[in-house]
Amino acid sequence: MNRKIVTPEIQAYILLKARRRCCICFGLNRDTSIKQGQIAHLDGDPSNNAETNLAFLCFDHHDQYDSTTRQSKNFTKIEVLQFKEELIKSINMAFSGPVFFGEATDLGADSITGHYIRDGKYESAEIKVKRLPDDKYHIEGIALWGTDREHGPNIGDLNFVAELHDNQINFTWRAPGREPYKVLLKFKNGKLIITEKNWVGIFGMNVAFQGEYQKAT
To answer: Domain range holding 26?
Structure first.
């Protein structure tokens, strides 16, 4: 097969879409830290430079994807394309607008449903809480770390449904080969306090949701 050079325009498009995040790292561990890596040809054909055939992978996963072994099953093209789609969706969500909307104020006692924000010098996060018809709550959140970095911040996201008990929501996520990730949301006087256990490695480097949030107007 004749190798065709990936044009600078296509390279820039792939890198900007991924923000130099490896889609396999994200797909397996929700790792959104910036990586050194290469653009991979997913079908193994170096002459096929179609955007749908290209993905930015870290060096380790690029080597693993291209290697052949009898001992274990390598990543498939379908897997990597799914990881790529999930990564781009998460990045678009995080970069589509400001981290929070409105002005943070202490509203005192109020309903659980709403939009909560935590804003710091180098990190920020937002949590949206929506009550569902069955009295469960949909929790959706984005956290950023390193908001002043040249290539953009590391990213973490939460998205789950759980029940409310005594103004608290507990959620546990179990991943193979690691301790369960646990997050506790406590609502009091218009504020939200989040604590986490075993959060290291769940999101991008240094990304966490724990801390005190205020309700946005």
So the answer is: 8-95
